[in-house]
Amino acid sequence: xxxQRVQDNxxxxxxxxxxxxxxxxxxxxxxxxxxxxxxWSALQEMTRKLDALPATEEPSPRLREQFYAMLETHxxxxxxxxxxALAKSRIDRFFAALLPSTPSLQFAGALAVLALGVFTGAxxxxxxxxxxxxxxxxxxxxxxxxxELADQKSEVKDMGGLVAASLLQHKSTSExxxxxxxxxxxxxPDRHVLTDLLGALAFDPSVNVRLSTIExxxxxxxxxxxxxxLLATLPRESAPLVQVAMIELLTSVREAAAxxxxxxxxxxxxxxxxxxxxxxxxxxxxxxxxxxxxxxxKQPSNPVLS
Length: 306
Description:
Shape: globular
Radius of gyration: 25 Å
Oligomer: single chain
Largest sheet: none
Structural class: mainly alpha
Number of strands: 0
Number of domains: 3
Number of helices: 16
Strand content: under 5%
């Protein structure tokens, strides 16, 4: 077993989920490898520090609902106003209330809706090409048919996202961490992936998972939905390590809307000392001129000596 494989299995070994044979091989390797011993000691030290942090309270259903409502509001503000936004919101709430709480039933329901959508779509697509529209009534019927097909595709996609989010909540900490790390390989994740990551940042009970989520989101901080999600989550975060990571990410993209949050945190005597200091540094950087400011980057040219 080489060093890379040993270090990749550290988390599973620590959680007790590594198979006995691999766990024994890992311990044998640790006994003779100074480099892996240092990595293991560093992991144990970080775990002890994380365990010493105050426990994060389990968010109430009402808080979860408010967070997603706030995130949806930010997304609507960042995007072009759509006449179908209200209808989509009502569909999302309808399916959230309709979805059963058991993961197996949720998955079965998603498959049933998917099968219905495929069957209906195939049936309509196999119909012969309709003749040219000759009356307003024909045009209206055609428009209604196209709208129904679009709604069915949207419902199947939304149902799949709800099932995925629900099943994720039942995974172990190491499995949730692996799920978040897997998103780092995606160059251009869609809006659903980013929304799931923001949900994990807001509600996952593991500090390690939340820190990894911030790392995954950092590559996409140029997108408005990511920045708005960070702004909505930061005031509710209680772990200092996660707070500092979010402050640094918002500062790195020079998010001007974060200035009021940074100022409140820098003056909050109940906040962690490192959090207050990080907020002060971030506030100073946000208020300083940008390095790309043309008024600052323009340098006086030296006269040419003849």
